[in-house]
Amino acid sequence: MHLNQFINGKWVPSTTNQTREIINPFNQEIIAEASEGNREDAKLAIAAARKAFDDGVWSSTPATERGAVVRTIGELIVRDKEELAKLETLDTGKTIEESRADMDDIAQVFFYFAGLADKDGGEIIESPLPHSTSKVVREPVGVCGQITPWNYPLLQAAWKLAPALASGNTLILKPSEITPLTSVKVFELMEEAGVPKGVANLVLGAGSEVGAELAENTDVDLISFTGGIETGKTIMQAASINVKKVALELGGKNPNIVFADANFEVAIDQALNAVFFHAGQVCSAGSRLLIEESIHDEFVEALVNRAKEIKLGNGFDANTQSGPLISAEHREKVAQYVAIGKNEGATLTLGGKQPDDAELQQGFFFLPTIFTNCTEEMRIVQEEVFGPVLTIETFSTKEEAIAKANNTIYGLAGAVFTQDIDKGEEVANKLRMGTVWINDFHPYFAQAPWGGYKQSGFGRELGKIGFEEYTEVKHIFRNTKPEAVNWFN
Ligand SMILES: NC(=O)c1ccc[n+]([C@@H]2O[C@H](COP(=O)([O-])OP(=O)(O)OC[C@H]3O[C@@H](n4cnc5c(N)ncnc54)[C@H](O)[C@@H]3O)[C@@H](O)[C@H]2O)c1
Ligand SMILES: C[N+](C)(C)CC=O
């Protein structure tokens, strides 16, 4: 499979003709050769997006028509769901069931934003001045640079593409250089749906080249980034060159608080899913479990017994419950965190190494890992591992649980399990996080905003606010009976 870039309505190789091998993390087979774009390619794409925006080919298309095109993209995703899901599993190693669920979510995201395209006709303001009208309208921001990570390649791209297009912007997407397969396919679908030339551009390649150019280039008006905290800081700094609008969706170290009065079986099952889903490579993974002291031993025993049974394997195998990590480099990072946890004095209760199974040796697998006897100042508790590693702490009062959960630089997501609904609501209100689940973990959907507090970033994706992020607000005041002011007489 050879993957090209999509710039100004044409499928093109990189200006240097360089390519990058794309690897299946399950067996290290080369699954594609992707054009390796660089700053020059990014500049060409930015120029195309700038021209398309300034010509108004898309922003002046009636919003209803824009919405119809965005809806068609969603319909094409539904049509090609199986192909897209296979590409995602090939590229990331996630199970095919997960990839199919991602594709369902992605289609819904396009449908949702398609529906919003023509819903905001502006607002009439009651002007306090005589003989005047006053109205507020929303306009597209302009040229949007969009940079996405490897863990949910198409889903994270969809959260950016759909609202940007629906609100009339032009864009350049730079997917993670290691997982470009579904982004390329969705650009084929956008072309088929009738997105005009130059409006949506795709540049493949490294963050230090393509991503950096998008963040720095003064023809880009907005940069929307999903990825790690350190990259986010670099992008924020670069974006200051022309005071771009910035949205950062960064990492998390997400607490999962389980009270003694929680439904035990539900809390066990959800705690397992919270951290080990997609091998823990989820920004909102519940990797920090806080258990009420009185049920700690029983809870840990049940959790460890369940975690031991997680079936690792080929994402295409129906029996597989979890795939590999994304790369050898990432697995090494996870292994280093395990070493850090041990050195800090946490007890390694499960896993902590690669599996021994012969059939898993070619993949980047790591066993589900549980640390007990953790304390809140440990690095293993505070830092995002982004792998199948759970830390367990205890608490004895609600106040202690809240204080511990909030003791983090992150603020992406958290959860509380209890059958006392007042207690659940109180904890949810006091957690400094962009999403809090009560008696659940992980749900997200197109209608509700997603984003972080603190160093998990700022700006929101999804929901009405996720659409508004791609708009500027303009106040238009009209004097209906113009007269001289005579101030300087
Ligand atoms: N908050 C969310 O919704 C959310 C969702 C998914 C992933 N994430 C986070 O993403 C991280 C994992 O993804 P990753 O390893 O791909 O992150 P990363 O920061 O390494 O890379 C993300 C993207 O940024 C690009 N990039 C790298 N250096 C760049 C630079 N200097 N300038 C511009 N772009 C650059 C990469 O090429 C990639 O496309 C985790 O921290 C995870 O929590 C957050
Ligand atoms: C935002 N989410 C949960 C889909 C993916 C985070 O990595």
UniProtKB/TrEMBL annotation:
CDD domains: ALDH_BADH-GbsA. Pathway: Amine and polyamine biosynthesis; betaine biosynthesis via choline pathway; betaine from betaine aldehyde: step 1/1. Residues 11-476 form the Aldehyde dehydrogenase domain. It is an enzyme of class 1 (oxidoreductase). Its EC number is 1.2.1.8. Keywords: NAD, Oxidoreductase. The active site is at E249. It holds the Pfam family Aldedh. One of its GO terms (biological process) is glycine betaine biosynthetic process from choline. Coiled coil: none annotated. GO terms for molecular function: betaine-aldehyde dehydrogenase (NAD+) activity; metal ion binding. It comes from the Bacteria. Belongs to the aldehyde dehydrogenase family. PANTHER family: BETAINE ALDEHYDE DEHYDROGENASE, BETAINE ALDEHYDE DEHYDROGENASE-RELATED. This is Betaine-aldehyde dehydrogenase. The gene is betB.
